[in-house]
Amino acid sequence: METVNGYRRRWWKEAVVYQIYPRSFMDSDGDGIGDLRGILQKLAHIQGLGVDVIWLSPHFDSPNADNGYDIRDYRQVMAEFGTMADFDALLAAVHEAGMRLIIDLVVNHTSDEHAWFVESRKGPDNPYRDYYIWRPGHGDQPPNNWPSIFTGPAWTRDDENWYLHLFAEKQPDLNWDNPKVRGEVHDLMRFWLDKGIDGFRMDVIPFISKDPALPDMTPDELRRPQDVYANGPHVHDYLQEMHRDVLAHYDVMTVGEAFGVSLERTPDLVDERRGELDMVFQFDAVDIDRAPGGQWKPWRLQDFKAIFTRHDGALDRHGWPTVFLSNHDNPRIVSRYGDDSPTWRETSAMLFATLLMTMKGTPFLYQGDELGLTNYPFERVEQFDDVWVKNAWQSGGVDEAAFVANQNRVSRDHARIPMAWSDSPNGGFTTGRPWFLIHPDAGRINAATQGAVYDHFARLIAHRHAHLSLIYGDYRDLAPDHPQVFAYERSMPGERHLIVLNMSGEEVAFDVPEGAWAVGNYDAPSPLLRGWEARVYRVD
Ligand code: GLC
Predict the structure, then answer these.
(1) Residue nearest to atom 4 of ligand 1 (CA)
(2) pLDDT exceeds cutoff 70 at 515
(3) pTM surpassing 0.90?
(4) Is residue 480 within 8 Å of 312, Cβ to Cβ?
(5) 3 state SS of 228
(6) Which of 165, 79, 129 is nearest to 387 (CA)?
(7) Is residue 369 within 6 Å of ligand 1 at its C-beta?
(8) CB of 107 closer than 6 A to ligand 1?
(9) Residue 252 Cα to chain centre, angstroms
(10) How close is the Cα of 151 to the center of ligand 1, in Å?
(11) Closest CA to 375 of 423, 328, 334
C-alpha cells in the first residue's frame, strides 16, 4: 500500500465532500420541496467546484418529524423527493460525472411510524418488542431522569410502559443489544451498498449502545447528556461487527457523527487497525459558541485555533480527521465565524473556504457555503420549522424576543432555508410555494451572482488536489497567541505550504515569507494583510 508522509493513501483522505439537504436544494416539480431530480438538474454546479463526493442527507420514506432523520422505511425513497428510479438515475449520473455518493445512515432510532415500532408498541409479547427500549416507570414518573437532546424527558409512556427516545418523541431508539436489530441494520446497509453507493455518514452513531442499567444522570452529567449517551459499553463491539460483516466487503468510506465523543476516545473509533469507522466529525469547532443548554456565548480566536492543534495531536498516522464548520445542524459560516455585513461577506466567505481546503483532514462543505450564504433574520418563534426549536420554546422560561435572539445565533434552521439559485421568484428554488422561508437576500445573493466565492472554492479545491502536502502534510500553528491572525503550515519532505488568514476586518502587519503566493482572496499582494485576507503560499 502506497504511503505519503507516513499515511496510507486512500481516496477518501484525498476527497472533498459536498453535503446536500435534499429538501432545500432544488425543486424540480413545483411542489415547493426539493427533490432528487432537482439535484440532477444542478449536478454541474457541484461538479464545477471539483468536489469528489456528495453526501445526501436522508432521502428515505419519513413522516418528517425531524426532516427525514426519522425513517419510516429504509428501503423506500421519500415520496416528496421522487422514486427509487430517480435515486438510481442520480447515482448513475454522479458516477458518470466522476464523483461518488454517500448516504445518511440513521439507525440509532427510527420513526415511530416504522413497521417495527408499530408492532413493538402492541405489547410485551410482540416479537418486535425487543427492537426498542421499553421499561416500566416509577408511578407517573419515567424510568430514569435522562433528557431528550431536543429538550424534555427522553421517555414517552405508552400504556403501562415507557419507550426511550434520545431525540424527539417520534424517534424511538432501537435496541442494539438485540442481535436481530443489528442484523436488520446490516441488511439495509447491504441493500444500498449493492446499488453501488460509496459509503455512509452515520447519524449519532456513538449513541447506539446504552448502559443496560439505565442509571440516573448526575447533575453534572445532565449539563452534557450527549457525553453519557456516546459512552455506552458496546459501541466498539457493534461497530467492529458492522465492519466485519458488511463494510469490509465494499470499497466505501464511512464518517460517523461523533456527538458527545471526547477527543481522547476518538482514536479508537477511527484507528484503521481496529476496523470501525474511517473518520468522525468532532464537534469542538461548532461547539465553540455554545454554553450548556444551547445558549450562544462569545468565543476567542485563540481558543478556536487551539482546537485544530488539539485535534491534530489526538490522532496518529493510523487515524484520519475531518474538517467542517457547517452542516444542516448549524448556522451559516459567514454569519457565525466571519462577517456577513455587505463589506466583508464575500471576503470572509473566501477566507473560510481557504481554511477548510488547507486544514488537515477531509473537508466537508455544506450547500450554500460556496455562495457565502448568510443566516436568516428570524423575527418570531412561529417562523421556525425545527422540532428542537419548538420543543425548547414549549419548555418556557424566556420571553419571545430573547428566545428568538438566541435562536438567530444558534438555530439549525439557518442552514435549512432553501438554496438561492437566481433572482427568479423564490430564488429559483421552486416555481411553487416553498416549504420553508426564502431568504430576503435570495434575489441578490445567489448562484448566478456569487461567482467570485464559488470560483475561489474551485481554485482552492484544485490546488488541494494538486498538492499532497495540503492533504498529508503535517500541521503546525505558527502564531497560536495572535489575536487576529491564524497562520499555519502544512509540510512534508519536499513540499510545504504556509497559510495566513486575517480573521478580522482590520488591517494587520504580519511577517510573511518570500515565496510563491498560490491562492488568495485579494488580487495583488500588499505588505499589510487586509480585512479578512487569506493567503496560501507555496514555500518549499
Ligand atoms: C443528528 C442529525 C440531526 C438529527 C439528529 C437525530 O444530530 O445531524 O439533524 O436531528 O441526529 O437524528
Answers:
(1) 69
(2) no
(3) yes
(4) no
(5) helix
(6) 165
(7) no
(8) no
(9) 18
(10) 14
(11) 334
pLDDT at 390: 95
279 phi, psi to nearest 5 deg: -150, 160
Rounded Cα distance, 501 and 35, in Å? 37
**Gap between the Cα atoms of 236 and 253, Å rounded:** 18
Q: How far is the CA of 280 from the centre of ligand 1 (A)?
A: 15
Q: Residue 445's Cα: distance from chain center in Å?
A: 23
Q: What is the mean pLDDT of residues 171-191?
A: 98
477 counts as catalytic: no
CA nearest ligand 1 atom 9, residue = 329
Please tell me the distance between residue 149's alpha carbon and the centre of ligand 1 in angstroms: 10
- 203 catalytic residue (yes or no): yes
Ligand 1: residue of 57, 110, 167, 390 to mutate (most ligand atoms within 8 A of CB) is 167
- pLDDT tier at 30, thresholds 50, 70, 90: very high
pLDDT above 90: percentage of residues in the chain: 95
Give the Cα separation of 47 and 199 in Å (integer): 19
- CB of 329 within 6 A of ligand 1: the answer is yes
**CB neighbour burial string for 75-95, b if at least 16 within 10 angstroms, e if fewer:** eebbebbbeeebbeebbeebe
The full DSSP string for 268-284 is: HHH-TTT-S-SEEE--H
State the average pLDDT over residues 98-111: 98
Cα(111)–Cα(505) distance, integer angstroms: 46
| Ligand 1 touching residue 203 (CB < 6 A) | yes
Q: What is the pLDDT of residues 118-156, one digit of tens each?
A: 999 999 999 999 999 999 999 999 999 999 999 999 999
Catalytic residue among 61, 86, 203, 346: 203
Task: Give yes or no for residue 66 CB within 6 A of ligand 1.
Answer: yes
- pLDDT tens figures, 363-409: 999 999 999 999 999 999 999 999 999 999 999 889 999 999 999 99
pLDDT, tens digit, 9 for 90 and up, residues 521-530? 998 778 899 9
Strands 3-4 and 7-8: antiparallel
> In whole angstroms, how far apart are CA 15 and each of 232, 333, 361, 466?
31, 21, 10, 12
- Do β-strands 161-164 and 253-257 pair in parallel, antiparallel, or remain unpaired? unpaired
